[in-house]
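tool_call predict_complex ligand=zinc ion
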Amino acid sequence: MQLTLEFGGGLELLCDSVKVHNVNVDLQNRAEKLTMKDLLCWVRTNVIKERPEMFMKGDSVRPGVLVLVNDCDWELSGQLDTTLEEKDVVVFISTLHGG
Amino acid sequence: MVEVEELRPHADHMSTIEDSDSVASIVARITLFNAGFEEHKQHFHHTQLHGTVGRDFDCIENTLDELKHKFTQLKTQLKALGSESRNGTLDVAKYRAKDDLASTRYHDPWALKLEEYKRYGRQLIMPEVGMPGQLRLKASSVLIVGAGGLGCPAAAYLAGAGVGKIGIMDGDIVEVSNLHRQVMHNSAWVGKSKAVSLGNALRLINPLPRYEIHPYHLVPENSAIAAGYSMILDCTDRPSSRYLISDMAVVHGIPLVSASALRTEGQIMVLNDPPVSSDSEKAGPCYRCIFPRPPPPESVQSCGEGGILGPVVGVMGVLQALEAVKVIMRPPDRPANPPSLIMFSAYGSQMFRTMRIRGKNPTCSACSSDTTITRQSLESGSQDYMAFCGALEASDVLAAKDRVSVMDFASMINRSGTPVNHTLVDVREKPQFELCNMLGSVHVPFSLLRRWKNAEEATTALSIDIESHEPIYVVCRLGNDSQATVNKLRELGIDRNGARKIMDIKGGWEAWRKDIDQSWPEY
Ligand SMILES: [Zn+2]
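tool_result ok
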């Protein structure tokens, strides 16, 4: 499945400072759909290069990270259960605190 | 120490009031003078409190008395001016009389002062503003917490637009390293209160609003200040104040515009709009609805650590002012915008993106009906925001024997006769290393070495012989990353179980600059 992943707010520093990743995620074991839970696992193994604890906590993202699927908060689409579709854009953004 | 001489220009400035001066300009000058006076008074009390008042004590007191007297005189003078105008003896009075005459004959009294029509004319003629919008602005009061990179531009636009009352809260002083982005302060104000500095600059832009200057830090115990305002702008720079300000906005039932910026990116949200106290069905989310738990402290970077591009934080501050006036001018029957987060990325393929975010969380610990956070609990100080957000562990991660002071390091490299062969590893990031570095040092950025997996990667990058006994010294900007590096090199076995010394230079280049080489740049 073709997806665009974007990292912002400093999370890109965990993946070689690359903000936009065009990826192809294979569905596991003839599964019919890809959920955000699956994607997080995949991202952790395949995209995050260092300090995974700065990205995830347990099986979700760490506090202070917003996840947006097609410009919409994943809270509105079912969080970990959100089902992804071909060409979806998933944004991971860490909150900033400077001023 | 209070600089007595600084008070004199204020006084001189005030002594030159002429009959031809307009009342408004005199009022503006008195306001300015008063602000300068208040600032010096606060400074004076502060000095007094901290017991550092020296031989200038009497002198300062006399000057302050003099100025107080002068101020009273000027107020009387102004009053007299007002009564003279009614007798028609001054030019200003003539114009005033003409206005009055016209109004009785041709129209009802104008809703705004003539000066306001002129000053706000360019926005008044817009359908988004008009008379209703301007009157809403005039009736509004905005508390700006933080007079820095966000607060400066935000406050300037709100003052210019004619917000009725503007509060500025900040306990910091202006530093020269602020001036590339905190555009309302200037070099002459370095070392003085940011809140007072910003207040003075705003009075010069527009003397008409009321300004309340709070030259101290926000803490739960003084959060009652929000009671006097109809909106808050969060222009601060750390998670603990963001949660505190959100809770303040919730308990006082006022909307909040929260923004932040770091490096090349910024984020902004309008929260608590409309506030919970109104129709709770329609109430907007608070900061805790969006971020119920604070980020781990090690993930939080400040502008001092991560850096910040001036125009980036400027854009965010300007957007804050924009969102604030949009909320203030919104007619009561118009619904609020759905909750969203605007992200700005100066180098992104799309500079601006608006993301729909979740609404109010029905079980939010701050804004739901079963909250334990009340105005009383907030002001009593029972909410510990520092503890809630956590702090980084103390920076001394290494034992004393693994650390060397800059003094000892200096005498080691300067030792005459038998110089000690060693490797100095500088682990700052590339831009910092390029700013200033020591001849012969080896540069390996911490972000890179943190990912080393075996000793070979380390020996290659450092060009060292694994069998050598030459000590390795590690240095960074402030002495934190260098300690972590020492541990990392040990984990990789570079120290061969203690056979080779790997030492951290305590306090980094900052300590070196302070104690050894004053020609090393401070940045
Ligand atoms: Zn809430």
